[in-house]
Amino acid sequence: MSASLDLKNQTAIVTGASSGIGRAIAESLGAAGAEVLLAGRTAEPMEISRKKIEEAGGRAHLLLNDIREVSAVQGLVDTAMQKTGRLDIMVNNAGVEHPASIIDGQPEEWREMLETNVLALIVGCQAAVRAMRSCGAEGKIINISSVASQRRDPGVYGATKHAVNAISGSLRTELEGDTIRVTTVLPGATVTNFARNFSPEFTGAILKMAGSDLEPVRGQRVPDEVLDQVSGLLKERFADPVHIANAVLYVVRQPIEINIEDIVVRPPHALNLKPQ
Q1: Which residues contact 239 (CB under 8 A, 6 or more apart)?
Q2: How far apart are CA 96 and CA 5, in angstroms?
Q3: If exposure means fewest CB atoms within 10 Å of the residue's CB, which of 5, 116, 196, 197 is most exposed?
């Protein structure tokens, strides 16, 4: 089967598609033939991804939103149905981490993680199920968790990913009689801008390991070319977002008779990220 055609006539939504893992997933699904709705808060990188998808013969749409708003998540699914009449793949990828310890953490940062990593994902799952049922899709819901959820002491961020696992498992049970499958993907340390909320000292040490003299600023994105440098030189410690996208692509290509519950994708050497 041709990799460029096997998702033809399928519609996919990817949240958090403006960077990192979400962006790689959106581009991979688009290159494989799906019509992709990229949802995120930063237009420029999604526009670049849209052009890549279209150059590969696919179709893509950009949706700027903040999925902490429940109506925004429902709006993504409504837009997919309006534009294409169906929804086949829902990738709940958007996430945020504030790595402070519980003792030193800020309640508003906890709220942001809970609303982004948990509430938006639940709403996305619910809206996707209703849309997939309405169009008779053999649907795939992919929820992006983290290897942090495999630890007993993962902090507040890891707790939100424990919740993702529990939500996915519960939904999987609810859907056993449907033609909709739910898969949880648990990435390990991956080269993205996800760590932008870590301390500059922590992020700077990693960049120096990769030979970069960039001085990071908390909350600001690291340029793509620097991330590429890290990916190339520290591949034993960090996965590339494409590796996660490949796992998602594998899942959505499987027949509906197969139920893939969980996939862990991590680099050869574990990197235990402690709160900074």
Answers
A1: 187, 188, 189, 190, 191, 265, 266, 267
A2: 33
A3: 5
Question: Among 163, 166, 144, 143, which residue's Cα sits nearest to residue 154?
Answer: 163
* Measured distance CA(29)–CA(89) in Å, rounded: 9
DSSP state of 189: S
Contact 39, 65 (CB under 8 A): yes
- Contact by Cβ (8 Å): 266, 147: yes
Is 3's pLDDT higher than 90?
no
Helix (H, G, I), strand (E, B) or coil at 79: helix
Query: Is 157 a residue of the active site?
Result: yes
Tokens for 200? 């500059």
pLDDT at res. 155: 94
What CA–CA distance (Å, rounded) separates 175 from 46? 32
Domain 11-190+239-257: homologous superfamily in CATH? NAD(P)-binding Rossmann-like Domain (3.40.50.720)
Where in the chain are all domains bearing CATH 3.40.50.720? 11-190+239-257
Give me 224's structure tokens. 């793509």
User: What backbone torsions phi and psi does residue 59 show, to the nearest 5 degrees?
Assistant: -130, 145
Which one from 53, 157, 182, 186 is the annotated catalytic residue?
A: 157
* pLDDT in the model for residue 188: 87
**If you average pLDDT over every residue of the chain, what do you get?**
87
